[in-house]
Amino acid sequence: MHSQNVEEGVHHLSHAFQLFSEETSRLKEDYAKLQQRLQTVNQELAAAHRSLLQKVSELNSVTHYLNNILQNISQGILFIDLEGRITTLNDAAARLLNVTVQDALFKNAWDHFSDDFFGFSLRESLRFGLAQRLIYKTIQQGTETKELEISTTFVFEGPKTYHGLIILLRDITEIQRLQRITHRNDRMKELGEMAATVAHEIRNPLGGIRGYATLLFRDLADQKNLQEMAGFVIEGTKSLESLVTTILSYARPVQIQPQSVELGAFLKQLGKFVRVDPAYPVNVKIEIHISSDPILVPVDPEALKSCLLNLIYNAFQAMPRGGLLTLTLLKVDNVCQIAITDTGIGIDPKQLQQLFSPFFTTKQKGTGLGLVEAQKIAQAHSGQIDVRSQVGRGSTFTLILPLKR
To answer: What is the pLDDT of residues 361-371, one digit of tens each?
Structure first.
């Protein structure tokens, strides 16, 4: 009996060891499979991670690329979401609006601009999803005035958090200035042609009047009172003939013979010439600032001298109580600039736009053709004259000439 129980125990134990061995083998196989599965998952995760990193890198590249475009375009761009936050602001917009990107980005728009700053109600546009047509606005930045063209687009696509107003800003100050120059040049051309025609029509009868007045002056030798009146007529015809000659000279195009001139030496020589001129006011001081590097420019020396003297003597007359006249020569990119600055009475803003109009003058004895002739000489050199002035503080006339024709 005891032996039978032992055998059964051994049998059960043997069976248990067999089951344990089988279970161990199964667990070993399952563990191997699990390790293989884990390795596969790790490989998949590593591949996914590499793909994710590549996607992030591509996204960063695209973001960097778009930001570069956004920051380097000349047009100002800002985006304002429905809450009024500025979520996009490029450098051009920051410059035009006289704010910094750090101070304005992700801040409330009304912290920096009034509701109607852009020429329309910003609150109403965001509230009702309204986009505006082209708006033209003048803004003042210190002493500088800028003309802006403003256009808007409302964004409705995507989640509501992405809705808002895109505002595009374009600085058209230079375009409008060039348009004014073009219109002025057209007027000058028409006035020149008309003046030439009128001058020719006046010159012939004027010569007859002067001839008969001269004969009358001779025949009235014994009647001094009447002879004096005839003399007045002769003097009047001389003044008219001088004006007619000036008008005809203005109507003729400027002919120049350019040659390479070193402007630094040229301006120094011009300064010496002005200082010994009897018309040079003793109460005016002249300073000349010249770049140390030589600046060679193709110009007609005599024509350029006439242009600059015209501007210099105008500056003298703008300083009746004396002051400082500064001549500055600068090289900027592909042009050179000769700035003539006075500390005189300045020019009224309403008169600035008429300065280069024929026969416009603020002087009692002026003809109004001096600045016109200077502008003609500048344009004959493919250049221009720019004017900036403040009443009571003085004016700067800048002659801009290309370094190459």
So the answer is: 655 555 556 78
CATH architecture assigned to 259-402: 2-Layer Sandwich (3.30)
**Strand pairing class (284-290; 323-332):** parallel
Task: Assess contact for 380 and 257: CB atoms under 8 A.
Answer: no
> pTM for this one?
0.49
pLDDT over threshold 60, residue 2: no
Beta bridge partners of 165: 80, 154
- Tokens found for residue 158: 């995507």
The CATH code for residues 76-171 is 3.30.450.20
- Dihedral through CA 236, CA 241, CA 243, CA 249, nearest 10? -170
Measured on CA atoms in the order 297, 298, 303, 307, is the torsion positive or negative?
Answer: negative
Alpha helix ranges (H) inside 220-348: 224-251, 263-276, 301-317
Domain ranges of the chain: 1-72, 76-171, 179-251, 259-402
DSSP line for 8-52: HHHHHHHHHHHHHHHHHHHHHHHHHHHHHHHHHHHHHHHHHHHHH
Cβ atoms 152, 166 nearer than 8 A = yes
Q: How many CB atoms lie within 10 A of CB 86?
A: 23
Q: Does 76-171 match 259-402 in CATH topology?
A: no
Are 145 and 156 contacting, i.e. CB atoms less than 8 angstroms apart? no
Q: pLDDT (tens digit, 9 = 90+) per residue, 89-133?
A: 888 888 888 888 888 889 999 988 999 989 899 999 998 888 888
Beta strands in 127-246 (DSSP E): 135-141, 144-155, 164-171
